[in-house]
Design a protein that fits this description.
Blueprint lengths: L2 H15 L2 E7 L3 E7 L5 E8 L11 E2 L1 H23 L6 E8 L4 E5 L9 E2 L7 H10 L8 H4 L8 H11 L1 H8 L3 E5 H9 L6 E3 H4 L14 H6 L9 E3 L2 E6 L11 E7 H8 L7 E5 L3 E8 L10 E6 L8 E8 L3 H9 L7 H9 L8 E3 L17 E3 L7 H27 L5 E5 L6 H11 L2 E5 L4 H11 L19 E5 L6 H14 L19
Parallel strand pairs: 1-5, 5-12, 9-10, 13-19, 19-20
Antiparallel strand pairs: 1-2, 2-3, 4-7, 6-8, 11-12, 13-14, 14-16, 15-16, 17-18, 20-21
Helix pairs in contact: 2-7, 5-6, 10-15, 11-13, 12-13, 13-14
């Protein structure tokens, strides 16, 4: 074999095997682009924060134009850094995946492609009264539509945000009358812009968070759309999480013509990052805590305050996987609150030193119900409290009680899921900024009475999105989920070292005392936006 032939073969094999997957992770506080190699390792990452717009208490908006501008800027920086630092050409990137903050809703014009209003963020609570009106109109049953869409009637979900925009924005209402209106979650907005305004699409996981998709057939439900007065023609086409969504427009030169082959909501994306199998659960610890249990190809209607949702669907002809989800209103945000508002500690090393210096919370208990309780209680009348304070109490005891409160809230959700699924959980897979703290993860294992598993890769949401894109036939980077098992490695497993049953019983009494405080029920749920690192 001559040298020229060998050179040609080396170049060919290099292009064939040296594939990378680019992902866009669009979150509540920032956007980031992450480049992964075939071993699921991060090659480059770039992040950019966006402004939180709060016109009134409880109202949270994002500027859609700022978001798409930041997304493109992040992608451009990652591609440039990959070229400069690793000699990776754009042509070596096989495909693009998108993961996003769920439920956040955008309305834009078909004619101009411009937004008609700021995006209403998932934690925006302006639809609180509207939700109550819908509940009242349906026999005061918050779960009236649950058998169809898996969700309770709540301001959290997109349908009520769309309805509010139709009722309160003259631009949105006019566009609807003129058949000029597009509704979508953030993934749809990003796809629309990246494809040069050619594709209006979403995936099953994002669609499952709107209250408008039928969980059984994975299509927009005519009845639900009528009940919420949402014109069916304004909604995006629903696709599998893994498949071809369109190609990036040539105007975005750094990734022109790159196929978009994976789209998935952020919490479901973390499930894929963990390679979550049926019967397994993960918890993402960020601002709040989000627990998802993969229930396989069967959707389970919860009788214990959980949400029924899509976990993922990896191909148009593949069966969908479903999940039970428990959303916890305050997770790492309560620790950040202790740091910034109460100034109980200055850095996370000091936090660990303080909580390790005491054997327990000194009979002090904390309930993180700053503006109510999400799953499994769904009580807007609850409020946060410390109880059991004495002259013996130190900041170490207070911090320990805050950590206990978060871990016990996760325990509540896991117990509810076990009741619904009728099976005990062997271990909990974890990710998110809080999980880097060994003390907290050990405490979580103690509270659960089961093992807690932390992966070596910290960016599980971005990784899951890369997997969805890379296992598509268009992406063609990985064959299937099993082929990835050797790449997604466990960093550490925590096993229970202490029985916290008696402590939890005392905490449950504290939780009962947090109820019925906001008796008027007027204040909506509101989660403080923060970044936990």
């Amino acid at each position: 074999i001559n040298a020229e032939y060998m050179g040609i073969m080396i170049k060919y094999l290099g292009r064939h095997f040296s594939k990378y997957v680019l992902t866009i992770d669009q979150g509540t506080t920032s956007s980031r682009a992450v480049l992964f190699n075939t071993e699921c390792r991060i090659v480059e990452l770039f992040q950019k924060e966006h402004k939180q717009i709060t016109p009134k208490p409880g109202w949270v908006e994002h500027n859609p134009q700022e978001i798409i501008s930041n997304v493109i800027d992040c992608v451009s920086n990652v591609v440039q850094r990959a070229r400069e630092n690793h000699h990776i050409k754009a042509s070596e990137i096989a495909c693009l995946g998108i993961t996003n903050q769920r439920e956040t809703t955008v309305a834009w014009s078909k004619k101009t492609g411009l937004p008609l209003h700021n995006a209403l963020v998932w934690l925006d609570s302006r639809t609180f009264d509207l939700a109550n009106q819908v509940v009242s109109a349906h026999g005061n049953d918050i779960n009236f539509f649950k058998k169809l869409c898996g969700l309770p009637i709540h301001s959290y979900f997109s349908a009520l945000k769309m309805l509010w925009l139709l009722q309160n924005s003259s631009k949105v209402a006019a566009a609807a009358k003129e058949n000029d209106l597009c509704f979508g979650t953030i993934d749809s907005w990003i796809i629309y812009n990246l494809t040069g305004k050619k594709v209006h699409a979403t995936d099953v996981t994002n669609a499952s968070r709107t209250m408008l998709m039928n969980l059984n057939n994975l299509h927009w439900d005519d009845y639900l759309c009528r009940e919420f007065s949402i014109p069916l023609e304004t909604l995006p086409t629903i696709q599998s999480c893994s498949g071809f969504f369109g190609a990036v427009d040539k105007s975005i030169e750094c990734i022109a013509n790159l196929p978009i082959t994976g789209v998935i909501g952020d919490q479901q994306s973390a499930c894929l990052g963990h390679l979550l199998e049926p019967g397994e659960a993960k918890c993402t610890y960020g601002t709040g805590c989000f627990v998802l249990l993969n229930t396989g190809n069967k959707s389970i209607q919860s009788n214990n305050g959980m949400l029924t949702t899509l976990c993922y669907k990896l191909g148009e002809n593949e069966k969908p996987f479903y999940a039970l989800e428990g959303s916890i209103e305050m997770g790492g945000a309560s620790i950040l609150w202790a740091k910034k508002n109460l100034q109980l500690f200055t850095d996370y090393n000091e936090l660990t030193q303080l909580v390790s210096s005491v054997k327990g919370s000194g009979d002090v208990f904390f309930v993180p119900a700053f503006s109510g309780l999400y799953a499994p209680h769904w009580r807007s009348d609850a409020r946060g409290l410390f109880i059991g304070l004495s002259q013996h109490t130190t900041r170490a005891h207070m911090l320990r009680s805050i950590i206990d409160g978060m871990c016990f809230r996760v325990k509540e959700v896991i117990e509810a899921m076990e009741k619904d699924a009728k099976t005990p959980l062997a271990r909990l897979k974890v990710d998110g900024g809080v999980t880097v703290n060994d003390f907290i993860m050990q405490n979580q294992s103690n509270a659960l009475g089961t093992m807690v598993e932390r992966k070596s890769e910290s960016e599980m949401t971005a990784l899951g999105c890369a997997i969805a894109a890379g296992i598509s036939k268009e992406g063609n980077v990985w064959h299937n989920l099993k082929s990835l098992q050797n790449h997604v490695k466990i960093a550490r497993t925590f096993s229970p070292l202490e029985d916290l049953t008696a402590v939890r019983l005392r905490w449950q009494e504290a939780l009962r005392r947090s109820l019925n405080w906001n008796v008027a029920g007027k204040q909506p749920f509101m989660i403080t936006i923060s970044t936990i690192t």
